[in-house]
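USER:
Make up one protein:

ASSISTANT:
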Amino acid sequence: MLMGSTIFGAIEFGFVLYGKKQRAVAPLLTGMTLCHVPYFIANLYVLVGFGIVLTAIPYFVKA
């Protein structure tokens, strides 16, 4: 669980930096959401599934 939180935390950090620098809304909001997800999800498989879905959002949404 800790490793999953750490991995998605690193992805979150990258999305927030990219979204802030490029003024892109989708990566910024996705990064902020990934920051808070591990606090509310206690199951590892649900965390990984939700994290993968959230990580894919900026690639499909160009806002």
